[in-house]
Amino acid sequence: MKHWQSVLVAETSAAEVINSWEKLSNELIRYIVNPAVWMGFIFIIIKVVFILIAAKLIVKVANKTLEHMMIERARNPLNLDRRRTKTIGKLLGNITSYVVNFIMILMILNQFGIRLEPLLAGAGVVGLAIGFGAQSLVKDVITGFFIIFEDQFAVGDVIQSGVYKGTVEEIGLRVTIIRTLTGEVHIIPNGTILQVTNFSVHNSIAIMDIAVPNDMNIDDALKILHETVMKNYENNVNMVKEPEVLGVQALGATEMTIRASVECKPNTQVQITRAINAEVKKALDKFRLEMASSRGE
């Protein structure tokens, strides 16, 4: 008797499970085939797409507006620091992009019925907890702020920080991007920037050490060098002051070194040195040929 009662209870339980499953399946099917559900889902997708497009357009328009404002500011005759203008323009563009994308994410979550008030409150608590653990990130942001505020360097400057030397491509609140002369791009967290050498703030000095044979007349060598550097000064807009021939820098067993210097625009000393060295070599070769012809050699 007890056996049959157990079998009856088991069959009853199985029937209830099957009925429950059938009811759930029917409810699911009715939900799936319900036109109102699909219309609501389509409306949500349309709204999300509209939000994405609107956010992209806002960022694009904001960047164009900032770019136009920076160009007008650079054309202002009273503006004396175009480096800072360019840097601030890029930073404002990044901040605008972050803010718009953050608002876009909140609006998309709202479309799916996620309440923003508890989310924002929870984000505040989580952010506080993360702040204690992400001290390096906070350090990067604070250092980036002071780099921009104190105008330590700007976009387009040539700087050296540690072993990295190159042109500053971008300064953000968290990282600084440097492109080297050979094309490598280095992304440096601002918190690790302990010391910076800026090569773009003041004019640079080009130093030319010209080696000439000891048997050459010193007055002729000085004259040739002076005429050559002055000729380059007249034709080179990167030289800001007249060159100086400083005289004999060193004496060797077979040759002497004559030094000349010139003040030039920032980061142009290398190309000026190369150009003057080439012109001096041509002038010395021409002088030797003329001396050889005069001796009848």
UniProtKB/TrEMBL annotation:
Residues 94-135 form the Mechanosensitive ion channel transmembrane helices 2/3 domain. This is Mechanosensitive ion channel family protein. The lineage of its organism: Bacteria, Bacillati, Bacillota, Bacilli, Bacillales. It comes from the Bacteria. Residues 208-291 form the Mechanosensitive ion channel MscS C-terminal domain. Residues 137-200 form the Mechanosensitive ion channel MscS domain. Its main location: membrane. It is a multi-pass membrane protein. InterPro entries: LSM_dom_sf, MS_channel_1st, MS_channel_C, MscS_beta-dom_sf, MscS_channel_2nd, MscS_channel_C_sf, MscS_channel_TM-2, YbiO_bact. Gene3D superfamilies: 1.10.287.1260, 2.30.30.60, 3.30.70.100.
